[in-house]
Write a structure and sequence with these properties.
The chain has eleven helices and eight strands. With 309 residues, the chain is α/β, with parallel strands linked by helices. It folds into two domains: 24-105 and 114-179, Rossmann fold, CATH 3.40.50; 193-305, Nitrogenase molybdenum iron protein domain (Rossmann fold), CATH 3.40.50. The strands form three sheets. The protein has a four-stranded parallel β-sheet, with helices on both faces. A two-stranded parallel ribbon has the order 5-6. Strands 7-8 form a two-stranded parallel sheet. The protein binds zinc ion (ZN). Zinc ion (ZN) binds next to loops.
Length: 309
Amino acid sequence: MMTKVLTPLFLLVGMILGSSTAQAAPLKVVASFSILGDLAKQVGGEDVTVTTLVGPNGDAHVFQPTPKDAKALKDADIIIVNGLGFEGWIDRLIAASGATAPVVVASQGVRTLTLKDPEEDHHHDHDHHHHGGIDPHAWQNIDNARMYAQTIAAALQKADPANAKDYGDRGAKLDGDLATLDTWVKDEIAAVPHEKRRVITTHDAFGYFADAYAVTFLAPTGFSTDDEPSAKEMKHLIQQIQSGKTRALFLESMGNPNIIKQLAAETGAVVGPALYTDALSSDTGPAPTYQAMMRYNVTSLVQAMKNNP
Ligand SMILES: [Zn+2]
C-alpha cells in the first residue's frame, strides 16, 4: 500500500525537480568567433546564452583578447573553438583565464585541406601564418558546417542533459536547413559555365568552398589577413585581370581593402561587394547568420563570375 503511494509521489517530485532544473539559468556558451557563435545559438536556442569572443566583422587571425574575454571564458560552462590553428591565441587565453569548462573543437572529424603554399605560386618572401599547413576555414564547405552543428549539438547535450531533446531537435532542424542550402549552392554554381568560375579576393579563405563547389580563387595576399602582397604578386594578378581571364574581384568584410582597390584602379575591373568569410555581419548587415552568409556570398560570386569572359 505504502509503495503504491510512494512511487508516484517520487516520480512527481522527480518531474518537478527535472523541470525546475531545465528552467534554471541557461548554459553559458563561449564561442571563439561569430560563425561558431551563430551555430551555437541556432542549436542552443533559449537553453543557452552565447558569448562570442571575435564578434561580427572581427578578424580572428589578428585578434587581441581583452580581460573581458578572459572573464567570459572563466565563467563559461562550455567553450567552442574552430581548431585547425584558426585561433592561434585561444590556448594561451584559456589557460590564462583559469577556465575549467570543456573545450569543444567544432571542426573535429572534417576532412582537412592543406593550404597551397603561396611561396610556390606567387614567390612571396615574407612571413606567413601557415598554421602547420592546414587550412582552418573548413566551414566554407556546407557539409563541414553540418558536422560542426552535429558536434556542437552533441556537446551541448553532454553539458546540459536536462535539455538534450531540445538540442537534438534544433540540431536536426539546422542540419536539414544546411542540406537544403548545400543543394541551392550547387545549383547556383552549376548555372555558371566552368571556364567562368574564377574569382580574385583578398585572402585564401575559400579553399574548402573551392574544393566543394568547383570554383577557382586567386588571392593576392597569403593566407592570413595581416599579410601584404609582394610587388611581384600584384603584377601577376594585374596580368591575370588584364589578360581578361578573371574580372570578378572581391573584397572581404575584414582585412586590407587597399590591395583589391589598387588592382581595380590599375586594371579598370569592377570590385564586387565585400564577402563574408571568417566573420558574420552585424544583425542589420547582409550576413547575420551562417546561412545568410553563404547565400549572400554565393549570390555575389555567381553574379560576378557570369561577367567573366
Ligand atoms: Zn581567414
